[in-house]
Design a protein that fits this description.
The complex is a heterodimer of chains A (107) and B (114). In chain A, the strands form 2 sheets. In chain A, strands 2, 4, 5, 9, 10 and 11 form a 6-stranded mixed beta sheet that branches. Chain A has no helices and 11 strands. In chain A, a hairpin with a 5-residue loop joins strand 4 and strand 5. By secondary structure, chain B is mostly beta strands. Helices cover 0% and strands 48% of the residues of chain B. Chain B is built from no helices and 11 strands. Chain B is globular, with a radius of gyration of 13 Å. Chain B starts with a strand and ends with a strand. The chains are: A mainly beta (107), B mainly beta (114).
């Protein structure tokens, strides 16, 4: 099956700093989503991005499907950005998730 | 509008018991998915419904797990003879139609098997 790898596994930032999270996948996919899982476990949709670049406030994402990777950019990080960030690719009928990046933003 | 809802939010049961977990998808979404998330890992696919039928149940771990969606809306995940290894958060998601659309997740049911 497809492999989805996220890096880095852990990231600690000072409030206000910028960061880039990466998602690599091993096969062609139909689509890609980025999620933020908050401390209560809720998966919050950030981006639905099969290709190209999208921006939403301080967050933006870029997917280069032909090279099998996606990037999530977080600018001017805030403590509320803390949590786990998941990349998930649509492979056949299902989303296949990476192991996530644990982000901690310190004030 | 209302998102995906799941009940109960928490379920504690004893080994060997039967449990049912319920998912109410976003109104109008024809596709429904169940995933399972163990501690420290990403969610893993269990089953996908398109309408009333299970279009892909390849992720169900064994025959103790079964899911239904009789009217094409609410779905129930049923686990027989629960084992301690079944303890996890069970997540439900829905999407507008088919399998190409963005999936939206519910808050999950945390199942603990003692």
């Amino acid at each position: 099956g497809i492999q989805v790898e996220q890096s880095p596994p852990d990231l600690i930032l000072q409030e206000g700093a910028n960061s880039t999270l990466r998602c690599n996948f091993s096969d062609s996919v139909n689509n890609l989503q980025w999620f933020h899982q908050n401390p209560w476990g809720q998966l919050i949709n950030l981006f639905y991005i099969p290709s190209g670049t999208k921006q939403n406030g301080r967050l933006s994402a870029t997917t280069v499907a032909t090279e099998r990777y996606s990037l999530l950019y977080i600018s001017s990080s805030q403590t509320t950005d803390s949590g786990v960030y998941f990349c998930a690719v649509l492979y056949g009928n299902k989303l296949v998730f990476g192991a996530g990046t644990i982000l901690r933003v310190k004030s | 509008g209302a998102g995906v809802s799941q009940t109960p939010s928490n379920k504690v049961t004893e080994k060997g018991k039967y449990v049912e977990l319920r998912c109410d998808p976003i109104s109008g979404h024809t596709a429904l998915y169940w995933y399972r998330q163990s501690l420290g890992q990403g969610p893993e696919f269990l089953i996908y419904f398109q309408g009333t039928g299970a279009a892909d149940d390849s992720g169900l771990p064994n025959d103790r797990f079964f899911a239904v969606r009789p009217e094409g809306s609410v779905s129930t995940l049923k686990i027989q003879r629960t084992e301690r290894g079944d303890s996890a958060v069970y997540l439900c998601a829905s999407s507008r139609s088919g399998n190409q659309n963005e999936q939206f997740f519910g808050p999950g049911t945390r199942l603990t098997v003692l």
